[in-house]
Amino acid sequence: MLDISEFQTKLWDMEVSDPKAIRALAHPLRLDLLGHLGADGPSTAAQCGRALGASQASCSFHLRQLAKYGFVEEAGDSTDRRERRWRLTGNRLSVRLGSEDDATVRQHLERLVVEREMQAILDYSGRAGGASPEWQHKAGIVSLVAVLSPDEAAELKERWLELLAPYVDDGRRRTRRPEQRHARCFMAITPLMDSTAALPEAADHG
């Protein structure tokens, strides 16, 4: 789960403000690795590679980079150092940015996350046969325009996270009922341009 206003992925217990650490997140495979560890639990680089369609060497490199900045750690339950198992370090992450330079990093990370989520939605909608019958007309996409103040938008975001909290697998609940599957949840609150705002006067070229 991603919330870029602060940035939450699978709900870590960590706050990050170091731009170098934030840049370490801004890589598609690293986000995929975090998502995989969040969904499937501790895994080796080889297991990650098979799940994500990437090489073991590439996954191993990016897992070490994520570990360098504290996003993942060794699970400590492997007897073979060549096959280290990795896990998330907690269950909530907040990224806070301050300066204009940091804002550039944030924009890059936001774009990467949105593109990644949109591609997942397009892949799902383009799948031959669509969803399995039991998921038909249950999962899907909702798009609407609401009337909100900034405070109401923040409240809506928090209520949405609270609503999802009981369904988020935080690593302690590894068993699922047969009908349950991991499902992507993505929400964006993006204010429209204010049509009542005064437009800049056109330059007089006469």
Descriptive account of the structure:
By secondary structure, the chain is mostly helical. It has a domain at about 15-130 and about 140-165: Arc Repressor Mutant, subunit A (Orthogonal Bundle), CATH 1.10.10. The protein has 6 helices and 5 strands. The strands form 2 sheets. Strands 2-4-3 form a 3-stranded antiparallel beta sheet. A two-stranded parallel sheet has the order 1-5. Helix 1 packs parallel to helix 5 (about 100-125) and helix 3 (about 45-50) crosses helix 4 (about 55-70). The longest helix has 26 residues, at about 100-125. The model is unreliable at about 1-15 and about 200-205 (pLDDT under 50).
Provide key terms for this protein.
three-stranded antiparallel sheet; single chain; 40% helix; two-stranded parallel sheet; Arc Repressor Mutant, subunit A; 206 residues; mainly alpha; globular
Q: Give the CATH topology of the domain at 14-128 and 142-167.
A: Arc Repressor Mutant, subunit A
CATH architecture of the domain at 14-128 and 142-167: Orthogonal Bundle
The proportion of residues in beta strands is: 5-15%
Instruction: Write down the overall geometry.
Output: globular
Number of E-state strands: 5
SSE ordering: EHHEHHEEEHH
- The CATH C-level class name of the domain at 14-128 and 142-167: Mainly Alpha
Q: Going across the major beta sheet, what is the strand order?
A: 2-4-3
Q: Unreliable segments (pLDDT under 50, ≥5 consecutive)?
A: 1-13, 202-206
Structural class given helices, strands, pairing? mainly alpha
